[in-house]
Design goal:
It is a single chain. The protein is mainly α. The chain has one domain (2-93). The chain contains 4 helices and no strands. The chain has helices at residues 2-26, 30-56, 62-80, 84-93. Helix 1 (2-26) runs parallel beside helix 3 (62-80).
């Protein structure tokens, strides 16, 4: 069960970091982008390790946690973090 929770957690973090990578690139924040890039790689490596370890043991149930973590991570990143670009367009063009 711990492996499933780790896969879920790592996938959530991976997707949050991927969204932040796009944001930092757009905002030209190089230092934050580089730190974020290291975190993406570490979390990605851990996620793939635990996922493949379970799959090699013929445990296909881990796929549900992998995909769920991906969806939850994207949702968190898109709804809970500030979207500067959206705010600018909304300010310039109104509704």
């Amino acid at each position: 069960m711990l492996d499933y929770l780790l896969v879920l957690l790592f996938q959530i973090l991976f997707n949050i970091f991927k969204v932040l990578e796009i944001k930092f690139t757009y905002e030209n924040q190089l230092k934050r982008l580089l730190i974020n890039s290291v975190l993406i790689n570490l979390v990605s490596l851990a996620s793939v390790y635990y996922s493949l370890d379970r799959l090699f043991q013929n445990d296909w149930f881990v796929i549900i946690f992998y995909i769920s973590g991906s969806v939850i991570g994207k949702w968190i990143a898109m709804t809970k973090f500030e979207n500067t670009r959206f705010k600018m367009f909304k300010y310039i063009f109104g509704n």
